[in-house]
Amino acid sequence: MKVESRLLPLQILGKQAANTAYKAKACERMLVLESENGVAQERIRSLMSDMGTESGLWALPSFDDPAKKYFPFVLPLADIDHGLHHCMEETEFAYNHTTWSTYFKQLNGLAKLFARRETVDRFIKFQIWENTRIPGEAKQSLASMFKTTCPSLCPHRWMYEFEVLHWLCERESFFKYLEPNILSGDSDLSQDEGNALKRLIEDPTASARFWGMAWVELQLHRWGFGVYDWAHRCPCHTKAENKLLKPPCPWNGRRLMEISAGKLQACFFLSVHS
Ligand SMILES: [Zn+2]
To answer: Which tens digit of pLDDT belongs to each residue from 132-170?
Structure first.
């Protein structure tokens, strides 16, 4: 018996193509040129793609018989980065729309405020150095926690959200000293963000809700980051060994064997640091 493994050049499908129907047609044409009609489709066993329009090819119906699939024996293999991106975006659906939208405006508002060095300096001066409720001996070390400014939030990149949540949650206890005058004269905030932040500062229930959600989101993002970190490392070195390697291990990011053995199932339940 002769087993032959081939990689068909389907990656060019993504180039300047607009939708699944267009890509399906281009894919069909490519396969007809490649071999007799229907032969390649029957023989293809796996289809790797991101989670965009190409992923529709997994479920594409046969042109001759719509009750059947175009690739009847295919195992879809989605790329983990895109899968994780969608997974992290879905946490939003656990909340009602208004709750989430208020939370996100507050998160974005705080990130914008504390991304600016001058606002952070103003906050340290008035809310730490000149704050009589903070013991004098603690002020220096508390002020030093604001040496770095808050990273910016990029709404469609979950990893930026992780960085922002990490920065904010570590400093949560300071934000009880926030006063409405922190909002004055800041032109980066939209009116909506300004109003949402004002509520966060003035209303203890709004503040408790925001921090509750922020900590839950941070935990979920921490999990996501663990999966991301695992997926980008190799099966043959520990994390510590991997950091020291120069050049990097050629097996970085090659996790298919472990995934096919069920590793992702474990990721649902466990932190994946190894
Ligand atoms: Zn390795």
So the answer is: 878 888 888 888 888 999 998 887 788 899 999 999 999
- Cα 250 to ligand 1 centre (Å): 7
Name, in order, each residue with C-beta under 8 angstroms of 272's C-beta and a sequence gap of 6 or more. 226, 227, 229, 230, 263, 266
Tell how far the Cα of 270 is from the centroid of ligand 1, in angstroms. Answer: 22
Whether cis (ω within 30° of 0) applies to the bond prior to 135 is no
Model confidence, pTM: 0.74
Pick from 38, 39, 46: nearest CA to 7: 46
Distance 249 CA to ligand 1 centre (A): 5
Ion ligand 1 neighbours, Cβ < 5 Å: 234, 236-237, 249, 251
Using CA atoms, how far apart are residues 196 and 104, in angstroms rounded to an integer?
A: 9
Q: What is the pLDDT of residue 16?
A: 64
pLDDT digits (tens, 9 = 90+) for 59-90: 889 888 889 999 999 888 778 888 888 888 88
Measure the CA–CA gap between 23 and 32, rounded to whole angstroms.
14
CA of 6 from ligand 1 middle (Å) equals 25
